[in-house]
Amino acid sequence: MPEDTTLSESSHAPASPDGNGPGTGAGRTSGTSTATVSGKTSRTTGKGATGDGRAAGPRKRRVPETIGLLVFLAAEIVFFSVQSPYFFNWDNWGNILTAVSITGVLAAAGTLLLVAGQFDLSVGSGVAFVGIVLVETAPDLGLGPALLLSVLAGVGIGLLNGFLVTVVGVNALITTLGMLGIFRGLTLVIGKGQSIFIEGFDWATARPFLGIPMPAVVLVVVVVLFYVLMHYTVFGRKMYAIGANPVAARLVGIRVNRTIFAGFLLSGACMALAGLLVTSQLGSSSANTGVGLELAVVTAVILGGTSLSGGTGTIFGTVVGLLIVGVLSNGLTLLNVDSSWQQVATGVLLILAVAVDRLRQTYLRKAG
């Protein structure tokens, strides 16, 4: 990828990975200003005055957006701990982490894409397709080649999504919705609508360290990798820059389409990993595998503070959003609340998350 060059302040500078943006808020200084997307150089000249000639005052300290999420999560934990004696124990938290692991692996890539203003709603059907490829080919080819084909299937879905979005120019929402239907149908055709079992593929049921389930270990590894990728690499900063202002990103020399394409490839790789995880957990795969995962992923990502308009969001926020949904679902199950009402609660959370995001964007526009 080419090295990023400087960008004049005449174009909007991209937001920083922490979502607060590179500017000085309402008191943005006048004069000449340059900044590199990679974060290597930041230079400002001028008198330190605001646009109307007033002296720039001290910057207001902003409260992290995740504070509200953490308070809500803590309130959930306290409530369910009081209501159920089985909630706050190690085994139950293992169940919670296992339950959210599949969604979390997909949400990590979903966060990366959404900060660039892109969507991937094909994740649920992609997970099912990876699983059905594995269980169908393993008996004839052996587990090793079947695993390779399954991974290639997941990455291939990401490649198709990236090609249609960045080369053909189809909107990401339309592309991935179409892929959702295509690969759900292909999974149904290949599996003939049946659950197909696989032998000797139960690695995800192990508890290798202190009784922690393997899916939780995988989730932690994926979260750490994406955290480093998004906050400490040029690629991650480019994704934020594209989401904040794609025109400005092109002006500083970022190859926008190539960067977005790489993001979809990573999403496909996460589909492959999630498909292998869920197949190992269940010991089988079917056309119904992964139904509703796209809704769960979007809920966790948006609830965690990633903006629908791109440019802001963090992996940490997504993890908190993921835990909020997971704790809510687990707690309602322990209280014997019908699963239908759990779906209602998840839908309400999604609507509230989007509403809060819209209100936050309106507030930032007025404040800026």
TrEMBL record:
It is a multi-pass membrane protein. Residues 29-42 have a biased composition (Low complexity). Keywords: Cell inner membrane, Cell membrane, Membrane, Transmembrane, Transmembrane helix, Transport. Its main location: membrane. The chain crosses the membrane at residues 67-87, 93-114, 121-139, 145-165, 172-190, 210-230, 260-278, 290-308, 315-335, 341-359. Residues 1-60 are annotated as: Disordered. It comes from the Bacteria. Pfam families: BPD_transp_2. It is found in: Cell membrane. Residues 1-13 have a biased composition (Polar residues). This is ABC transporter permease.
